[in-house]
Amino acid sequence: MNNKILTPEKSISDEAAIYQIQVKGKITDILIHSVDDMQIRQNESTEAVSLVGWLPDQSALLGLLNTLNDIRYAIISVRILTKDN
């Protein structure tokens, strides 16, 4: 559990973090070009793709999620793996 006190000036969403995003589908050239420097891994048993990479803030995360939606990937999950402090 995160015990940080959040204020309007600083919230978790304002911090850089390494994210893992899972989407349903297969790896395609469009996906590869859309996720820049993120690591991409296909899970054949669940037909899911795992994307792992650093994003500077929530705005970048939302931009990436919108891009994934635009190219028709259903988002399964989003997790923060580590945060920059």
Q: What are the SSEs and their pairings?
A:
Layout: E1 17-24, H1 29-34, E2 39-43, E3 48-55, H2 58-70, E4 74-83
Antiparallel strand pairs: 1-3, 1-4, 2-3
Give an account of the 3D structure.
There is one protein chain. This protein has 85 residues and is of the alpha+beta class. It has a single domain (14-83), classed as Alpha-Beta Plaits (2-Layer Sandwich). It is built from 2 helices and 4 strands. The protein has a 4-stranded antiparallel β-sheet with strand order 2-3-1-4, with helices on one face. The longest helix has 13 residues, at 58-70. It is globular. It starts with 16 loop residues before the first strand and ends with a strand.
Features:
single chain; about 80 residues; alpha+beta; Alpha-Beta Plaits; four-stranded antiparallel sheet; 2 helices; 4 strands
Summarize this entry quickly.
By secondary structure, the chain is α+β, with helices and mostly antiparallel strands. The chain has helices at residues 29-34, 58-70, and strands at 17-24, 39-43, 48-55, 74-83.
Which segments are poorly predicted (pLDDT under 50) over 5 or more consecutive residues? 1-7
Strand-pairing-aware structural class: alpha+beta
Radius of gyration, rounded?
14 Å
Report the total helices: 2
Oligomer designation:
single chain
The count of strands amounts to: 4
**Biggest β-sheet strands, sense, barrel:** 4 strands, antiparallel
